[in-house]
Amino acid sequence: MRIYDIIKKKRDSQELTKAEIDFFVEKYSKGEIPDYQASALLMAIYLNKMNKQETVYLTEAMMKSGDVIDLSDIEGIKVDKHSTGGVGDKTTIALAPLVAACGAPVAKMSGRGLGHTGGTLDKLEAIPGFSIEMEAKKFIDSVNEHKIAVCGQTASIAVADKKMYALRDVTATVDNISLIAASIMCKKLASGANAILLDVKTGDGAFMKTLDDSFELAKAMVDIGCGMNRETIGMITDMDEPLGFAVGNSLEVIEAIETLKGNGPKDFVMLCETLGAYMLVLAKVAKNFDEGIEKIRDAISSGKALEKLKVFIENQGGDKNIVDDYSLLPTASKIVEIKSPKSGYISKIEAEEVGVSAMILGAGRETKEDILDLSAGIILTKKVGDYVNEGDILAHMHLNKEEKLQQAKERFIAAYKIVDEKVEPKKLVYGVVTKDEIKKF
Question: Which CATH class is domain 79-324+430-440?
């Protein structure tokens, strides 16, 4: 078998076999196929696409290029959640203890952020002492005993994906549904969960900007998961404005805690309830979505979810006292009011621009070498649909680097579109994708 023939075949829009895809992934991972031939094949895939079966084969080959975690020693159906990311997306911090409090085992491997704000691990590390490094035995024992553990992905998971993504990033071959879906799912499948819930964001602050693309990506990932015998559900949720009010690592931790105390922002609470209900259905802890919602709401109102969060934090070396004393979290030295330049109704908040503003303050990374300021960020006070008068406070910026304030402030104010006519907020959930159907709401 020759890589030349595989490139030629895909160049001519023919279907690749499992053996051909396995050959490419294995040889490229080992450095036996040079970058120039790998990039030629990736460009052929980008232009001529892959069908459903090819995408499953590619995902499986990438998954097997590194360690595949065995979670069979954990009792019950292990359910994982993956978000395609966005601005203010602190969902795992509230959702994992919420679902665990309902009896579903959550064994989650998460990543760091590159871009607008930190990833889940960065946010958790805002908690003093919290460790995302865990030996396999402690990880498994933690889930069996407490129903919850979150750790960092090891460098040995999906080795081919890291190498291929770096090449795609510099050869303009990132934006292909099959390649995106395979990249996400190979890591999720290698992480060992029995069932996967996918939160596919759509809109300005999301990777997929349009609804059609978001549904297409969700369908591709659900097909992969189900094609590899993992029950998988995809949800399409809004990221046209930031999620909740808090953007920035320690600020998002506080908002997640407030949500478990029953004081969360309406959109974030609804998202946690909806995702949580589907996770309970996947874990067979709830018979249907309605029962799942009921269990999730009870876990908040009874205080069980908040107690589970404390256990989770303490078990991973963190200071559980932060739940009742936010001053123990990283705190910015300066808080600045950002005021509205005009009166009217907020018709749009460009989530990506808000994320970039937070990044300028230090809440995100422009390069992987950047060190996060875990205290920096933005707390919004107004959302789409709200009326503001000129001079009303739109947000508070939390910062330590005053020299960055003006640049961040200009980007932030430009993100707000204020009009004379009243507008309605967008819906939060646009649809659900299962192996059998696509439901659009």
Answer: alpha beta
